[in-house]
Amino acid sequence: MQKKKKPNRITCPCCGQEKGERNLSRARKGLPEINGLLVCAGQHQEAADPALVLLAGFDRWACDDCLNSGRAIAGEPRRQRQENIMAHEPEYLAFWDKSYRSCLDCGSAFVFSKEEQLFYYQQLGKSRLARAVRCLDCRRARRETFRPARELGEMLEDGALRSEEFRQRVVDNYRLLGREDKARYFEKRRPDET
Ligand SMILES: [Zn+2]
Ligand SMILES: [Zn+2]
Hints:
By secondary structure, the protein is mostly helical. The chain has helices at residues 25-30, 37-41, 50-56, 64-69, 114-123, 136-155, 164-176, 180-188, and strands spanning 9-11, 18-20, 72-74, 94-96, 98-100, 110-112.
């Protein structure tokens, strides 16, 4: 007599290996946090285990082996920004290094590391619809390019020149932006009395 084979193994999107029950406990635990998945992943599938159906239709989780070995790190959906319902994109139950073919600025292949992703989605509060399109060096360079303008905006908000050091910083930032006229203007001004 032949035993009927149950579909109780699914492929981990992180390591690409087929995993069974015993390797899915952490991913399974994360599922109750997730709303909306039931709708997109559960269509017309009859399975003894709805959790397996859910995970099979979803690619942002990792098996216990990946999480325990550090190949993947666990995500906290509650700390990820919730877009409006029309733009809903699945939560990250896990992060692992992702390779991309080319950076928008320098064109080289780059890795968006799991640590960067955690920071990006859970600290910076970036939308789950977004992903890095530049390598780390280009992202840093870009931040540096925009820094003087951003800093000036914050520094001059209330119009006060708090100290000599503060005034010099304003001058330096205008020079970095190529605004010699403004740099000269602030060079002549004296810091406000306090
Ligand atoms: Zn895995
Ligand atoms: Zn780059």
